[in-house]
Design brief:
The protein has 7 helices and 5 strands; from the N terminus they run ααβαβααβαββα. The protein is of the alpha/beta class. The relative contact order is 0.13.
């Protein structure tokens, strides 16, 4: 890490990665994932800018996520695309991975992205997906990156528990 003049040893890097697998989730994550377990009309996947190895390890080893890991039907990451969110190609990659045609507007509109990151919501909306933005702080949508309806989430929720109902109503 030449910028900060700090050098980490391999054992330090391994310790940091183990800590990543133990990150706590927000309190609404467990109940939302439990509710998803019984929703057969929803196909939940993890979609991340991380590597498959890193994300898979977290989902299967995190004390908060491990009990719910079977809820996820797949882990989709951007490393195959070699671009990061919010590039359109990564959302199109997600569509292909879940059996949708990224060129078909109806297929794209049937997909939901759930995120607390405005850039992720805007990226998904720009390719025609639905998006639920989790506004835990209650500050309201303030992002102006992309104009019009596609620059805003389909729904704004204060908790992941609200997402399950919102998505269920649309499918």
């Amino acid at each position: 890490m030449s910028e900060s003049q700090v050098e980490l040893q391999e054992k330090d890097l391994e310790e940091l990665m183990r800590a990543y697998d133990s990150l706590s989730t927000f309190p609404d994550v467990g109940p939302a994932l439990s509710a998803l377990k019984d929703k057969h009309n929803i196909y939940p996947v993890v979609f991340s800018n991380g590597t498959h190895s890193m994300v898979s390890s977290s989902v299967h080893n995190s004390p908060d996520l491990k009990p719910h890991s079977s809820v996820f039907k797949d882990i989709v990451v951007v490393e195959e695309v070699k671009k990061f969110k919010p590039a359109p190609e990564v959302y199109q990659h997600l569509a292909r991975k879940v059996g949708k045609d990224p060129k078909n507007q109806k297929d794209m509109a049937s997909m939901w992205l759930v995120s607390g990151n405005p850039f992720d919501v805007v990226g998904a909306r720009a390719v025609g997906m639905q998006a639920a933005w989790v506004d835990r702080a209650g500050n309201g949508w303030q992002d102006g990156l992309y104009p019009g309806e596609q620059g805003h989430p389909t729904v704004i929720v204060k908790s992941l528990e609200e997402v399950v109902d919102a998505v269920s109503k649309s499918t």
